[in-house]
Design goal:
The complex is a heterodimer of chains A (about 600) and B (about 350). Chain A is an alpha+beta fold. Chain A has 16 helices and 22 strands. Classes of the chains: A alpha+beta (about 600), B mainly alpha (about 350). At the A-B interface, helix 1, helix 7 and helix 13 of A face helix 2, helix 3, helix 5, helix 7 and helix 8 of B.
């Protein structure tokens, strides 16, 4: 057997031998200096190009390699400084000032010219990650300290411009989306990208991998990668050490993202202590505490929800055009079962409407409205709502639904709820929803479709009902962006044409019954500065939402999960000690944790 | 002329058939994945379209469609559009011709879901894992299984009565059950072995004692999860082949002639071997398809996972590229088996030679 083992070891050693470390010692990465994080990289890494939309860890999670101007704290709702030392919201623009200490890894200062270039690239190329914000800004102005406009021609002057004004587009004033982008757009080194784009063109530039010691501003540099892991190494000369951390370096020398194939591998690796942090779904987290594995909170709901998985409804399909039918559906679903059975209880009880009743959205939530207009699980109300709208359902002697007829005696066609095959938690949710609807007398059935087809059908509106989590990541524009994602008519298009918002084709501006007030409110809310006025507008919008029920929210869920193991490292932020939000290091504000955690002495 | 060289005639005949099979398989490999409704660009759009307005999203989508050659391009390199302004989908025939000519030059194209990686790169990264997991298990499993099977058939008695049910059990357990059972008992409950990956996360593949011992340690569970099943399956097959051979006329005849027992055993083994040999060739051929189940359970980044991922994201070039690789190796392995059997089996020589 020993010969066997040797042979196999030899064979295995051929594996992935193509990528070698840049002169590391034999022992590999010392465990006490390495933090293993996971959950944001699934397949083999393909590109680390910061201007690619589908880029890999850690570029995709923002500020380990490339940084943003600001960071959004989903616990406090505040924007915190990163590359920008300050920001201010004005009548017609949002202004930021770049930190004078910000430096690229090649020692060059990070200037206003870099920032302007990073955004301007999206003006003419809307498909780039910095493109979408150009719906809402008309220009990025570069100012000197005195407030005079500076020419967009970079020089080596030590007195480089640091003030920038993001001019709000006159026809779409929306400072919220602009703030979103300030904490989302990666600032790239102009002195690297501009010459490259001039030389080989933009398309070829986006296909570059940027995997060999790229010029970055963040605290960790890409060291090596393969189909098994991505390794980043601490940069001793990171500019932020001085500005944010009293001159101290981050604690772990390496931050590594191993690549596993399925959710259960992350759970097992956490249990075994080979993984320190993960943002994957770990079932029954309470049973792992004895192994040193914990979540953000040590008791239910364990996580802080920021997203709402929901059923989108195509309101152009038959009886689904009828708000009463949609509301009857919302009354018929057992949300408690969904939370407990499909959601591992990682969620607070659901309240009607699109506004979360806790956290930052709590000031906009009205329990009174929810009670008066909202639909909660109530089978009798579901049946009553159907009956009042003239629907008649027949059941057989076993109590199973046979068919539903509308007030004209026409049979209501079966409503199919689509969900991607193999997404087991979503499949469970859909089954619970279907069961409730059929009990209430609504002819609904599940339809699980191939993942490749699913997205096409979602965007084209080729569904009766479909699972989706609109506007999932926490951002300054919540809950406005959630309303916008399901109710706006800004990009309204008939079924068959792709749209990326309001896929249910709700509130057709050309059809009778168009509710202009919705678009008015969606346009107005981002511009309101008075807190009471904003709360009133949200309240009004949420009431319309509950009356119309264009979609059916099913539960609350964190956008990213947050689990950690205390076998090798301690000092992670938790619900009891929330010095940072529940984001794993490498993910926006969570990166700050790298300066606070401590290795656990091993015996 | 070939009449005098029955073996060569046999080989040439087989080669012709294999070539035909290859051409049909290549064509099916190309068209089948592309016939479904799924579009690989949709999966990409799902990831990148957050917050985009329709205009920006369409611009991105068209950029990808153009890049992957899924739309018609005019002489200026612009996308051809129908009267409704929508891009015209590229027809399959020219794509197929392009694919064949590229494949002949050894270029399998670029991945769509893992853009901008090349298919060749993906296969190169995954293949060593698959071979490392599969080759030793198949070869050793086959050898040991056959020896044990022959022994059981010949010895009978207690050995057979204990061994046979055990082998039967091993060959009947589904691979995923056995793998998960091993992980549950030895990795999760006992924590004797690591549950996932190919070697310690902190190491880099290189020829050092540290790495090799780590790789061997990580390798044991996945190896056993396949190896024991292969042993079981092979042993059962060999055992029944040998039992059958024991009762054949030539063995009886040899016994009556008083041929030495060892010699008889050799005859018997040689005959019983033939179907097993074909089996070995087939498993070596299909080996590159990956041990999907073991790869999933142990998170080995092998070819099985590559293909599964490609199918899930409708990544046509990767599906086609991997299938081409599998097709080729299966056919080559089968062909080698045919050649080998032609050389070993006197009956084939006789049949092809036309002698009575």
């Amino acid at each position: 057997m020993s010969a066997l083992a040797l042979l196999t070891a030899l064979l295995a050693s051929g594996v992935g031998a193509c990528k070698r470390p840049n002169g590391d010692d034999d022992a590999g990465l010392p465990r006490s200096e390495t933090l293993y994080v996971a959950g944001r990289q699934w397949g083999e890494p393909t590109t680390f190009n910061p201007i690619q939309s589908s880029v890999q860890w850690p570029v995709n999670t923002i500020n380990l390699m490339y940084e943003t101007l600001l960071l959004y704290n989903p616990l406090t709702g505040q924007m915190q400084p990163l590359l920008a030392e300050s920001f201010a919201q004005h009548e017609d623009n949002v202004e930021v000032t770049v930190n004078p200490n910000a430096r690229w890894s090649d020692g060059k200062p990070l200037t206003g010219w870099d920032v302007k270039f990073s955004f301007d690239l999206g003006d003419k190329n809307r498909g780039l990650p910095m493109g979408p914000v150009w719906q809402y800004i008309s220009a990025v102005r570069l100012l000197d300290a005195a407030g005079n406009e500076v020419a967009d021609t970079p020089t080596d002057t030590p007195d480089y411009p640091r003030r920038l004004q993001f001019m709000l587009a006159k026809d779409a004033v929306n400072p919220l989306v602009v703030l979103d982008s300030l904490q989302d757009v990666r600032i790239i080194p102009r002195h690297v990208f501009e010459p490259m784009i001039q030389k080989i063109g933009l398309e070829a530039t986006t296909n570059e991998k940027f995997d060999k010691a790229p010029v970055i501003s963040g605290p960790y540099q890409l060291k090596q990668y393969s189909s098994e892991k991505i390794v980043t190494e601490r940069r001793p000369d990171y500019w932020g050490n001085k500005v944010f951390h009293d001159g101290k370096q981050a604690v772990p020398r390496y931050v590594v993202h191993p690549i596993y194939k399925g959710n259960d591998h992350f759970s097992i690796a956490l249990r075994q202590g080979t993984l320190d942090m993960s943002s994957t779904f770990v079932p029954r987290i309470w049973r792992k505490a004895e192994k040193g594995v914990h979540a953000w909170l040590d008791k239910p709901p364990y996580f802080t929800p920021t997203a709402m998985p929901m059923l989108l409804i195509n309101v152009k399909h038959g009886a689904l055009a009828d708000a009463a039918y949609r509301r009857a559906m919302a009354f018929s679903i057992n949300y408690t079962d969904i939370r407990e059975l499909a959601g591992s209880n990682y969620s607070e009880p659901l309240q009607p409407g699109l506004i979360m009743p806790f956290g930052l959205e709590a000031p906009f939530f009205s329990a009174e409205d929810a009670k008066q207009y909202g639909a909660t699980h109530d089978l009798a109300r579901a049946k009553q709502t159907l009956a009042e709208a003239g629907y008649k359902s027949t059941f057989n002697e076993k109590g199973d639904l046979v068919e539903t007829r509308d007030k004209n005696g026409q049979r209501v066609p079966t409503v199919y709820i689509k969900s991607p095959t193999g997404w087991s938690d979503w499949e469970a949710i859909v089954k619970i929803a279907v069961r409730g609807m059929r009990e209430a007398g609504i002819d609904a059935r599940e339809r699980f479709v191939d993942g490749g087809v699913f997205w096409n059908e979602l965007f084209k509106g080729d569904f009766d009902m479909i699972m989706n989590t609109p506007a999932s990541p926490p951002s300054p524009s919540k809950p406005w962006s959630r309303f916008e994602a399901v109710m706006t008519t800004r990009d309204f298009a008939p079924e068959g044409e792709k749209v990326y918002k309001n896929m249910g084709r709700f509130n057709d501006p050309k059809a009778p019954g168009y509710i202009a007030r919705i678009d008015q409110l969606l346009g107005k809310i981002p511009t309101i500065t008075d807190a009471a006025e904003r709360a009133a507008a949200y309240r009004e919008l949420n009431v319309i939402y509950m009356q119309q029920q264009p979609t059916i929210p099913l539960m609350y869920r964190p956008d990213q999960f947050y689990e950690f193991s205390t076998r090798h490292w301690t000092g992670f932020a938790t619900g009891q000690n929330p010095y940072l939000p529940p984001q794993i290091p490498g993910e926006r504000l969570g990166t700050g944790m790298l300066w606070s955690i401590k290795p656990v002495p091993q015996d | 002329m070939l009449k005098n060289h029955p073996v060569i005639k046999h080989i040439l005949g087989r080669a012709g058939w294999y070539l035909l099979t290859f051409l049909v398989a290549v064509t099916i490999n190309f068209f089948l994945p592309r016939m479904g409704k799924a579009n690989p660009v949709d999966s990409i759009m799902a990831k990148v379209s957050a917050g985009m307005d329709t205009k920006s999203a369409n611009a991105v989508e068209e950029k990808y469609l153009k890049e992957f050659g899924l739309v018609e391009i005019d002489a200026q390199g612009k996308i051809k559009r129908g009267h409704d302004g929508k891009p015209i989908k590229a027809s399959l025939a020219p794509q197929f011709i392009n694919y064949v000519s590229m494949s002949l030059r050894g270029d399998l194209g670029g991945s769509i879901a893992q853009h901008p990686k090349r298919v060749g790169e993906l296969i190169k990264a995954a293949l060593p894992w698959t071979v490392a997991l599969q080759l030793p298990t198949i070869v050793f499993g086959w050898l040991i299984g056959n020896i044990l099977g022959a022994l059981a058939a010949y010895k009978r008695g207690v050995f057979d009565r204990v061994f046979y049910p055990g082998a039967l059990l091993m060959s009947a357990i589904p691979a995923f059950c056995f793998g998960m059972l091993l992980v549950y008992v030895f990795a999760i409950k006992k924590e004797w072995f690591p549950a996932v990956g190919g070697y310690d996360n902190g190491l880099t593949p290189e020829l050092t004692f540290n790495f090799l011992s780590s790789a061997a340690y990580y390798y044991l569970l996945p190896f056993l999860s396949v190896f024991l099943l292969v042993v079981g399956g092979q042993a059962i097959g060999m055992r029944s082949m040998c039992i059958y051979a024991l009762g054949t006329d030539y063995v009886k005849y040899a016994k009556l002639l008083g041929v030495k027992e060892n010699k008889i055993l050799f005859y018997m083994f040689r005959n019983a071997m033939l179907p097993q040999l074909t089996g070995l060739a087939v498993s070596l051929g299909t080996m590159v398809g990956g041990a999907l189940i073991a790869e999933i359970i142990f998170s080995y980044p092998g070819l099985g996972m590559t293909i599964l991922g490609a199918i899930q994201s409708s990544d046509y070039p990767v599906i086609t590229g991997c299938c081409l690789l599998i097709t080729t190796t299966v056919l080559v392995a089968n062909f080698s088996a045919d050649v080998l059997i032609g050389l070993l089996d006197p009956r084939i020589r006789a049949a092809q030679g036309g002698s009575k």
